Amino acid sequence: MSDIFRDPDAGYAAVLVILLPVVIIGIGELEERLRQRDSPLRGPVGIVRTWVLPLFAVWALMSVLFPAGDADVVISLVATALVAAGGAAALAALAIVIERIRTRPREGRRSVPRLLLAFPRIIVILTILWLIIAGVWNVDLSAALTALGVTSLVVSFALQDTLGGIASGFTLLADQPFQPGDWIEADGVEGQVIDTNWRSTRIQTRDGDLVVVPNGKLAGATITNFDEPARLHRVVVPVQVAYVNSPTDAKEMLLAAARSTPGVLAEPPPNAVVVQIDDPLMGYEVHLWIDDYSIRPRVSSDFGSLVWYHSHRRGVPLPSPAQDLYLWDGERTAADERRDHASILRGLRASTLFEQLSDDELDQLAAGVEAARFARGETVLGPDDDGLVLLEHGAAQLELHLDTQNSVSVLDLSDGDVVSPIGRSETRGHELVMKAIDDCDVLVIPSSSAGGVISRSPALNGALDQLTTGRRRRVQRVLRRVDQQRAAEQVEALGLSATPDDPESADAPGSDDEQEATS
Question: Is this structure's pTM higher than 0.85?
């Protein structure tokens, strides 16, 4: 019995037989704990328990039990399987770490390129191959490496352009002048970066075409990144205005159009500068700030459209064709473009709200009316405005702004509808605005003209009050629907069953709608 403990091989085998099952049981318990936690590490641990430990036991026992030279091939095969299993476990664990690095939020920092994330896997695979060839099978790799060096020299001359592209790809990855999703301009190509691989970079242009640019060209080109260091981008739009306009009036008109353009940021504010002074025109540059380079063409187009509308509404004419020679009379031109009294009266009579007014009252009401034209998407009347707005031609709607990004339609408006502003106190602090759906021609009736007529006409006062009351009720119903929808979303998020709506809070069918239609 004492000879057994003095034999080192027998003691090694006894320790292996006793210790290995304990390790296997411990690894199995660890795997079960990871399974209960739904941990991705369960896969690598399972490989260690199922393959690495049993193969290690077989290899260790065969190395002890069989003399040297008797079963070298079998032992080498088992050792090869052992190294391959250990490598598979290492690659599985490395894949989990790489995925966490790739998917974790960067908080404004650049993401790690995929090519760099592939390097650890390549190193692990080369290490496994080296262990199997040189460590297990005892193959001398010095001669092979010498031959490989000569072969690499020949191949490098044959594939110098391809290898140069690959080296350029590594240079781009190290410098990181852009990343997927950035808008760039390089080598005469402007577009959004789709991907960068070993040889080339794929860029999608605004036309929807995919341009593949070799990394060798990008490495030597000047690259403009429109999304770095920040997504803030300035759009410069040149505009020409007639020389007869003062720079103050022209700048106010241009800035009003800029502030009304969708997508233009309020901070930094838009700016207008004079760049040319030359009769019969003056040149301006309007600077618009956006935070998404992809909308730059649309912003420029929308701004150009709004300049025309604001120019006509504010009486700031744009330059006429240079080949037309005429004597311009500003007062006469303004008088010709101003709506006459008769046409304004026809516009007022087109509304059923003013049918009950006498001719004298209509004359007094029309005295202060101003005609205006609004483009699609512009705000015609806001809660801070004053007076009444008569929609003469076009389509509009009352829109309730719940926050800076969400709004809901309250009422569609058509020809002849009259709108009065409703303050924020009636809408829980939200803005109720009249927004143009199509190009609209409106008559703006200031409170100075409407107040006196309304006070002397009880019928008009009552009809206008009934109209405003009906629209307030519409706003309240919309707000109740929004509250019910948000409550239902919260209940659904908590996983509770929704209860039926309170019948008393439900809208009475047709009650307010019929009253407003009647008014």
Answer: no
